[in-house]
């Protein structure tokens, strides 16, 4: 590929991932609207449904979110009465996030979302699994590289 082609938008991995992410997130929107939550709130709840009572710092690592993004997100979810934030009694510097009964109950209502979204794509279950695995690998590699660079 010649140098000028390297800078074409359609040849950028970052743009392909960005555009795809936006379009896939749009597929979730109507289902999340039914629950009264945003996509970022949804992925936060997914992490908490998987492992409740987790330190904010650990949750941030799991979601690849910094505290400047995560703190307002958690405040909003707390305002929706879906979780509580409390200081860790063993380490006052740490804040623990716990789902409320309402937050745990929302999991049941959200259970059908993945299948409803997948049905809107032309991918097979195997294709989705393969793509997801490739994206996870790329995420880990990119994160490791940025960490190695001291970022």
UniProtKB/TrEMBL annotation:
Q: Where does this polypeptide localize?
A: Cytoplasm
PROSITE patterns linked: HTH_MARR_2
Q: What is this protein called?
A: MarR family transcriptional regulator
What PANTHER family does UniProt report for this protein, alphabetically?
ORGANIC HYDROPEROXIDE RESISTANCE TRANSCRIPTIONAL REGULATOR (PTHR33164:SF5), TRANSCRIPTIONAL REGULATOR, MARR FAMILY (PTHR33164)
HTH marR-type domain span:
10-140
Q: Does the keyword DNA-binding apply?
A: yes
Q: What keywords are annotated for this sequence in UniProt?
A: Cytoplasm, DNA-binding, Transcription, Transcription regulation
This protein's major location comes to: cytoplasm
Lineage here is: Bacteria, Bacillati, Bacillota, Bacilli, Bacillales
Q: Does the keyword DNA-binding apply?
A: yes
| Top-level taxon | Bacteria
């Amino acid at each position: 590929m010649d140098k000028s082609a390297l800078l074409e938008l359609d040849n950028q991995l970052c743009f392909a991932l960005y555009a795809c992410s936006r379009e896939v997130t749009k597929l979730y929107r109507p289902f999340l609207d039914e629950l009264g939550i945003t996509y970022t709130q949804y992925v936060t709840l997914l992490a908490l449904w998987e492992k409740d009572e987790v330190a904010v710092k650990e949750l941030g690592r799991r979601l690849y979110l910094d505290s400047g993004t995560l703190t307002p997100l958690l405040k909003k979810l707390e305002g929706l009465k879906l979780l509580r934030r409390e200081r860790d009694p063993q380490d006052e510097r740490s804040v623990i996030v716990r789902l409320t009964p309402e937050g745990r109950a929302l999991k049941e209502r959200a259970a059908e979302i993945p299948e409803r979204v997948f049905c809107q794509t032309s991918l097979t279950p195997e294709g989705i699994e393969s793509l997801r695995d490739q994206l996870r690998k790329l995420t880990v590699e990119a994160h490791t590289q940025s960490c190695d660079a001291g970022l």
